[in-house]
Fold:
Amino acid sequence: LCTPTVIGEKKDNTNEVDGDLNFYAKGVRDLAAKNNLPLCDLRKAFVDYLATNNPEDKEKGILTTDRVHLNDVGNKLVADTMLPFIK
Structure:
C-alpha cells in the first residue's frame, strides 16, 4: 500500500487539500497496520523532504512542476521510496 504524495508544496499544512490527503494517508496507514501489510509512506517522504528542502515555503517547483505533476526530483523521490518494496 502507498499513501498519497502532495498537491501543493507548502510545508505548514496550508495547501488546499492537505486535510484530505492527511485523512487518506491515515486511512492507508491504519489499513496497513490492521492487516500487517507493507506500507510505502510516500506522503511522509514528501512532507519530510519539503520540511528540509523548501525554506521559502514555495507552492511548487521543489518536487512538482505545477503543484500536482512531479518534476525529476519528485519522481526520483518516489522511485527511491518505493524501490525497497519492489526488490
